[in-house]
Amino acid sequence: MSAPAIDPADDIVAYLKQHEHKQLLRFITCGSVDDGKSTLIGRMLYDSKMIFEDQLAAVKRDSARFGTTGDDFDPALLTDGLRAEREQGITIDVAYRYFTTPKRKFIIADTPGHEQYTRNMATGASTADVAVILIDARHGMMVQTRRHSFITSLLGIRHAVIAINKMDLVDWDEAVFDRIRDDYLQFAAKLPERQMTFIPMSALKGENVVNRGGSLPWYSGPTLIEHLESVPVASDLNLRDLRLPVQWVNRPNLDFRGFCGSLASGVIRPGDEIMALPSRRRSRVERIVTFDGDLDRAHAPQAVTITLADEIDVSRGDMLVHPDSLPEVGARIEATLVWMHEEPMVAGREYLIKHTSRKTPGVFAAIRSQIDVNTLESSPAVALGLNEIGTVQLVVNEPLCFDPYSRNRTTGAFIVIDRISNATVGAGMIIGSSSGGGEHWDTSPGSATLVEERSRVEPRERIESLGHAPATILLTGLSGSGKTEAAFALERALFDAGHAAIVLDSQRMRRGLSRDLGFSAAERSENLRRAMEVARLVNDAGVIAIGAFVAPEASTRARAEELIGTERFVLVHLDAPLEHCRARLPDLYRSRGSVSLPGVDFPYEVPRDADLVIESARQTPEQIAARIVGLLRERGILRR
Fold first, then answer.
1. What does 455-489 look like in DSSP terms, one character per residue?
2. Residue 120 has pLDDT above 60, yes or no
């Protein structure tokens, strides 16, 4: 069935031993629809003599019924196993096939080319060492060629074969090959650097796949199988950083407690000092247990059970590492995201995040940008649709132990799961820790030497002089509910009554202190935090601060109250229907650009604990201001 160096009929033990120790290579075929991916794999299996006779007979029989080559043998039917695939002549699901040569063992992932099945393609690429990207010589590069090239690059596949197929249909023209190669190199110059090999071929005719024909005298490079047999992939493994995500704690009896998992990277030996994250407790490896007996050494990607010398608390989802080579640990992460679901991803919605063996709720606090797969240029975005790719800020409920994806493909990746349907809706590649806005509510001052000087003016003196106690009034509501107009009307009313007040609205902040912030959930939160820091300072000076902010999240408004102090904080909700807000600000709601709007793109959490709720659509700014002044008098803030 194959072409081995040792005939199994002569020495079956030697034959099995030979195959046991051969290196395994995983590769993926991808590209646009009808570029010949399934045909290529079928040709490789056929010419490598890796097809049983009954399989070959069935394919020859089905070629007349389902094939796209007339009465000739159609190699694509060897991998297009679903009935719908054979009837349509396309690949839908990921098909995995195994074959071997005297030099290597191979697992092929045949992935679909249709745009709607990009998620299947990403699944097949996630474990591949080499990407074979097919291009139809008649059509050149297509959108899916670029998308699949970009995704395989994002997924860390460091070796790419650009197989320019169907050369027989362009009369084996070298100029066509050169033009497509130059076009691809120009596009790939914007991708991370990786080893690329260009091979002209005809998968249907079997030219330059396994065997070398005479139709390409101008090509002197390797055939596809020659290249796959020799491409170096062992050096791609990360054997420096020990990462063992714990998948299961094995406790069959009182005398054994082992931690099971597959090594994501690194090497481990009995006696090694290890650290369990996130607890940071230390111990030493006592045994490396497998079904075949204990090992004196294990390396990625082996699955093992580790026992420790000390009884430390380690659970599923924890990670065992060497103390001198630690991953990052954090709850705010920058990542590249491939969205795989018909329902768009929007900032602020909660999903389940599956990272190694840990699963935790999380939200995408910001969409930094969307990446155009044709030009690889970034542009602002308020959502990511099906098959779109963007850079995002992820915030998870429980800290993750991670590495950048470029360093570790296992600890640097995560999948996104819909909480309702349990469907996988996205795949992410971690860039690193996030430094985006929103995390500074809890951040301590940068220096421990800061000393706060006490004012020489007592608070009671300010109250007696100004006729009011300090306070911060936060007006919240949808964009277009009238917050800013009401804030300035309130400032006027207070000034006319002899009080000192200042308006801190979102637009003023963004033109000054917050000019570096966008409109993601995290950046909105940071904008409010900065305003509340200013409000606290002016309150300390006896001045009333009036804030006009959407502040869509209840948790962020609660943090604002905590920062100001409950006795000084007044929350006013301007309750206006979305239709009224749209009518007042039609341009904002119609052409939002990079601005994601609460109530439209993600939820606005209506305050349940507001000190005052005003239906702002039915009242003028002056009427709203008068009601707030009345509340301030009731609470004893205004004293004259």
1. PSS-HHHHHHHHSB---EEEEE-STTSSHHHHHHH
2. yes
